[in-house]
Each structure stands twice: as structure tokens, then as C-alpha cells.
């Protein structure tokens, strides 16, 4: 399996619930390494740019409003098959449909306040990692 990097965000609802450590523990137990991390309170412009692919969707304003409502924890995860592995740990977008034991099933309350973001392809991972981190902020181990 290929070694990959993926971008993960712990969203404002999960930061407010004080479960950053519990979510990090799930990454580590699954064999993913945190190779960069920062806490940020996103501006409207940062959130709009990050989610630009959803600009035309009806929920875009709600999504940007939610993502700027409080601090987020942003990290780069590295490991074998990291993109799919992180998506599996996250569970389905709608927590009501997320498999038991996934991060969204355990910590999310609704489709908008759904605890975590994870890149969904190698192309989006590359764009999203570069959106938040310069190469000298990433520390492969
Ligand atoms: P993903 O986060 O599982 O990849 P996407 O379809 O890429 O899901 O949607 C991005 C984010 O937009 C979701 O995580 C969720 O926060 C938000 N979102 C998706 N659908 C809805 C909706 O119908 N209402 C409100 N927010 C939504």
C-alpha cells in the first residue's frame, strides 16, 4: 500500500466538545502519524477558499458559517493508504448513517456539525495540505 498524506480537520463542534485527544488517539491507533498540526480560527475567506468546490451548493453559506463559528484543529496525517483509512475512521457525512464506532457516529450531531473533515482523493489531499501548510511545517517521521 502506498504511503500517503491526507488533510484532516477537527471541526468547531468537536473542538468545543473537548475531544481533540480522543480523535487523535483514533488516528494513532489506526497507524496514522500526525506530521503537522495547528489550531486556527478560520476567517470567512479561508473557509470559502477551502470549500470552493461546494460554492454552488445550497448549504455553502451554512457550511462557511459553521466552519468559522469557533476554532478548528488542522492536521496532516501520514501512513499507508492514509486517505481511505482516515475516511473509514470518520464514517459517513451524515452521522445518522455513519457506522458504529466511527468518529462521526460517536461525536457528531448533524450533517453540518459533523466533527471532522478528511480529504477524499489524492488530488484533494495535495491541494488541501498545501492550503494550510508550507512544506517546512511538515515533519515526516
Ligand atoms: P465529506 O465531508 O464527508 O467529504 P462533502 O459531501 O464533501 O462531505 O460535504 C462537505 C461538508 O459539507 C460536509 O462534511 C458537511 O459538513 C457539509 N454538508 C454536506 N451536506 C450538507 C447538507 O445537506 N447540509 C449542511 N451541510 C452539509
From TrEMBL:
Compartment(s) of residence: Cytoplasm
Cofactor requirements of the protein: Mg(2+)
Ranges where the Nucleoside diphosphate kinase-like domain occurs: 3-140
Active site location: 117 (pros-phosphohistidine intermediate)
Entry binding sites for ATP: 11, 59, 87, 93, 104, 114
Enzyme class: transferase
PROSITE patterns according to UniProt: NDPK, NDPK_LIKE
GO MF terms, alphabetically ordered: nucleoside diphosphate kinase activity
Main function: Major role in the synthesis of nucleoside triphosphates other than ATP. The ATP gamma phosphate is transferred to the NDP beta phosphate via a ping-pong mechanism, using a phosphorylated active-site intermediate.
Family recorded in the similarity comment: Belongs to the NDK family.
Subunit structure: Homotetramer.
Protein name stated in the entry: Nucleoside diphosphate kinase
Naturally occurring in which organism (per UniProt): Modicisalibacter luteus
Gene name tied to this protein: ndk
Amino acid at each position: 500500500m502506498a504511503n500517503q498524506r491526507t488533510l484532516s480537520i477537527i471541526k468547531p463542534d468537536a473542538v468545543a466538545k473537548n475531544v481533540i485527544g480522543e480523535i487523535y488517539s483514533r488516528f494513532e491507533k489506526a497507524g496514522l502519524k500526525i506530521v503537522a498540526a495547528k489550531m486556527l480560527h478560520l476567517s470567512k475567506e479561508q473557509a470559502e477558499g477551502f470549500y470552493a468546490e461546494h460554492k454552488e451548493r445550497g448549504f455553502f453559506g451554512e457550511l462557511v458559517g459553521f466552519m468559522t463559528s469557533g476554532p478548528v484543529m488542522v492536521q496532516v496525517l501520514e501512513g499507508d493508504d492514509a486517505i481511505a483509512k482516515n475516511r473509514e475512521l470518520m464514517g459517513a457525512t451524515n452521522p445518522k448513517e455513519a457506522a458504529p464506532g466511527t468518529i462521526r457516529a460517536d461525536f457528531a450531531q448533524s450533517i453540518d456539525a459533523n466533527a471532522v473533515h478528511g480529504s477524499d482523493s489524492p488530488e484533494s489531499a495535495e491541494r488541501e495540505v498545501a492550503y494550510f501548510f508550507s512544506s517546512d511545517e511538515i515533519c515526516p517521521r
